[in-house]
Amino acid sequence: MNKVRDRLRKKLEQMKLDKIPKFEKWDELPKELKLECVNKLDFKTRWFLRGTSRKERSLIDSQRFDFEKICLSNGSMITATYLDSDKKGHEFKTCSYEYQQLDHLLPLLAYMLRRCNIREFRINETHPLNQEELDKFNKLVPIGTAHIKNLFADEYNETALYFLRKCWKQVDEVHIFAYGNQNYFKDLMTVPAFDHALVFKTADPASPGVHVRHFLPMIENWIVNNAPVGKKLVAEDINPKTKNSFLLKFKNRVIYQGNIDVGYVIRLSTNHPYKHILAGFVQLHNDVFYCTVVDSETELSDYDSYLC
Amino acid sequence: MSVENAPVVDVDEAAIPVEKKMYYRFESNDKKEFRVSELAIQQSETLNRLVEAMGYTSEDVENKPAIAIENIDGKTLKLVFQWCEHHKGEAIPVDDGSVPKIVEIPEFDAKLMDIDNGLLFKLIWAADYLNIVQLLNVSCKKVANMAQGKTPAQLRRVYLLPSDEEDEAAKRAAQEAQDPRAREVEEEFEERKRQGGNSFF
């Protein structure tokens, strides 16, 4: 009885497959025309097409899919958003069979990081990747290959550092909540993607009153290594009294210091004659330390616009 | 074929500004001739550049031989020019390089592309060759729609995709076809392996 049922089911499946419209000329299309077709597919269909053969995988991998946002949460869930050419948003979620483990999602996540453009990559409530996951992932996504524009981590931990290392050097913004872990700066500064990021934002709402000394090596690096104009650090939850450490460290470079409308400002010279550094201690809803590389022609009246 | 007998594309003359009312003559590779309005030609970057470079007057268009399009047959070219006439004057989309792209197929285009796969394949080639951006978009979208939402097993059916194993077998067969000795060598090698030898020497 079961055999008959199985045969019937297979026959029905076959009939269903036979009814699907076919395009038997696919293989005769040159690669660029295949890509013209593929760029009109949604992500899921692309992913499935990529899984059919090595040839199709190579085709799909040659064209980067643009993600607006990818969020990795609970260590086992991926939420991805992309915009179509009409700027209409599409979202899909997928989660691992095993709680807090990426296991079967690793190939998908690796594909997203290695072969797609990601405007915003968020790491929320993650758990350290286990060794097996790390080994697999390191093969699939080498260091410095993920095309991520902005990386956000709700906590500084090994996972955040791991994904930051995977980023290419054209990261615009890195935003990390420290949660009491202020010693991470030394690690971050060894990551090329971090060094190249234009903006770094950090906050420590769990233990406000962060000493400004943690950021001094970064600013020293800007001074010595000719950081580009526009490079910016925004550190929230700092202790404003620690500005004296900042002044002490850079006392030989101070060009200007004083109060303006938004807060206390210090201007430093750098090793480059056309670049200065503008630092500000501003009180908003919490105490914020701003630091940015500016053109040496910047006027005092423009300071406000840099410190917000 | 004389101009009188040539398949003439329907033209909505009311929609064409008077000063633009010039029709170029094109000939397909199977000697079918078409008259196409100047405004419709603007949909094709290739043809537009060609006619601009030729600098034909109205008299030239009538007196000189039709412009030959060597790579496209009459059946395909008729579809191309029907599409161009229908969409004449419309803005040509600019590709910003983003992926994915959303393309809607208008009703007219859907009817025009209600054709067999062989002709659709030729239409895609022609749209690419003549650089008609939106026609390439809609024709490729039609091919993409066949795959949209399908499972990997269904996709294999839709595009008749060979599996890796089938692909490799086909490659081997092609290699062997080029070099028949390769098969003999392989058979000889297999035979020696069966007999316990591990080297040809």
Overall description:
The complex is a heterodimer of chains A (308) and B (201). By secondary structure, chain A is α/β, with parallel strands linked by helices. Chain A is built from twelve helices and twelve strands. In chain A, strands 3-2-1-4-5-6-7-8-12-11-10-9 form a twelve-stranded mixed β-sheet. By secondary structure, chain B is mainly α. Chain B folds into two domains: 140 residues, Potassium Channel Kv1.1, Chain A (2-Layer Sandwich); 30 residues. Chain B is 52% helix and 6% strand. Chain B contains ten helices and three strands. In chain B, helix 4 crosses helix 6, helix 6 runs antiparallel to helix 7 and helix 9 packs across helix 10. The longest helix of chain B has 15 residues. The N terminus and C terminus of chain B are likely disordered. Chain B: Pathway: Protein modification; protein ubiquitination. Chain B: It comes from Caenorhabditis brenneri. Chain B: This is Skp1-related protein.
Instruction: Name the largest protein-protein interface in this structure.
Output: A-B, 42 and 40 residues
Shape of chain B: extended
Name of the level-1 CATH class of the largest domain in chain B: Alpha Beta
Q: Give the % helix of chain A.
A: 25-40%
CATH topology of the largest domain in chain B: Potassium Channel Kv1.1, Chain A
**Distance separating the two termini of chain A:** 75 Å
Distance between the termini of chain B: 69 Å
Uncertain segments of chain A are none
How many strand elements of chain A?
A: 12
Cα Rg of chain B: 25 Å
Based on the coordinates given, report the CATH architecture of the largest domain in chain B: 2-Layer Sandwich
How many helices of chain B? The count is: 10
**Would you tell me the structural class of the helices and strands of chain B?**
mainly alpha
Q: Could you tell me the number of beta strands of chain B?
A: 3
Task: Describe the protein's topology.
The complex is a heterodimer of chains A (about 300) and B (about 200).
Chain A: H1 2-19, H2 31-38, H3 43-50, H4 54-61, E1 65-73, E2 77-83, E3 89-95, H5 106-115, E4 116-124, H6 131-140, E5 147-153, H7 158-166, E6 173-177, H8 185-188, H9 192-196, E7 199-203, H10 216-224, E8 232-236, H11 243-249, E9 254-260, E10 263-269, E11 275-283, E12 287-295, H12 303-306
Parallel strand pairs in A: 1-4, 4-5, 5-6, 6-7, 7-8
Antiparallel strand pairs in A: 1-2, 2-3, 8-12, 9-10, 10-11, 11-12
Chain B: E1 23-27, E2 33-37, H1 38-41, H2 45-54, H3 58-63, E3 67-68, H4 74-86, H5 107-112, H6 117-129, H7 133-147, H8 152-158, H9 164-178, H10 180-194
